[in-house]
Write a structure and sequence with these properties.
Layout: E1 3-9, E2 20-26, E3 34-44, H1 46-53, E4 69-76, E5 88-91, E6 94-96, E7 116-117, E8 129-133, E9 137-139, H2 146-149, H3 155-165, E10 173-177, H4 181-192, E11 196-200, H5 204-212, E12 217-219, E13 229-234, H6 241-247, E14 249-257, H7 270-274, E15 279-282, H8 288-301, E16 307-311, H9 315-323, E17 330-334
Parallel strand pairs: 10-11, 10-13, 11-12, 13-14, 14-15, 16-17
Antiparallel strand pairs: 1-2, 3-4, 3-8, 3-17, 4-5, 5-9, 6-7
The structure holds zinc ion (2 copies).
Length: 339
Amino acid sequence: MTMMRAWAVGTPGRIDTRPLVALDCEVPTPGTGQLRLRVRACGVCRTDLHLAEGDLAPRGDLVIPGHEIVGLVDELGPGASRFACGDRVGAAWLAHTCGTCRFCTSGRENLCLDPTFTGWDVDGGYAQFVVVDEAFVYSLPESFDDVAVAPLLCAGIIGYRALRRTELPRGGRLGIYGFGGSAHLTAQVAIAEGARVHVMTRSPESRELALSLGASSVGDTNDAPPELLDGAILFAPVGDIVPVALASLDRGGVLAVAGIYLSDIPSLNYDRHLFQERTLRSVTANTRQDGQDFLEIAARIGITSTVHQYAFREADQALSDLAHERFSGAAVIVDFESD
Ligand SMILES: [Zn+2]
Ligand SMILES: [Zn+2]
């Protein structure tokens, strides 16, 4: 087989204009230190939507999105030795870092000055095959099947980093704003670690999911949680929520913004939103260590992914449904072999 099916971003635009195009292209060949994966499942991340809609500028023509990739190693490039053909691995957002800049050499490769990202700079997993750098893929816990583990690879890892960025104390009070793929995984880690979790989301379906996972309370986006918060994570890409969340922090509390994209933040009032040493932080990508740590914890606590499956030929529908909030939890593309 020398040709494969893939979805690529054509002309970025609102999802209803169908910015994703289906195409036939050549099966890629792995270079030095690379692996080719036969894709088994690929999670659908909000970042894919931002890319398709042009919120994130495309970094090339017809880039193939998708960075929650579960695949079987299909061919080893020259020098690749970490895995064998047939091994199941996961490829995520971080495709490559330079390894030499001041951030890479100080344990902060998420801030690398010259990184590449899967499904943005290099082709991702909305395709039957993908080529990845072997140093940047993860071994996957056997306790998860392909579909269950896919959303862990971005939604899970980034949410986990966001949780750590809140520096939530043991048994602390955590607010979660927006409750989709990433939030529903992060909430499970926080709850397993003893946090009381309050979820603010406009979706009644997501509120129900939050309660079923053990949230202490649920409310609408602009509702105040029933107690002040030690930490909060903003998952919804809505800058208007920033002051709302800051106002719900206790003294010394931290708000972490988890997304790669956020609409503008309205002006803040120093006294109401920041004074008393409240902190507003962003979260930028993740290190490989974050990924490993999270996958270990996820396996240990038996995290459950609420997943909506889409056949490969329906990938654009999955993005459209994400845009229109037609499901709660995470979407995963499967069934890559059928037309
Ligand atoms: Zn670097
Ligand atoms: Zn993502």
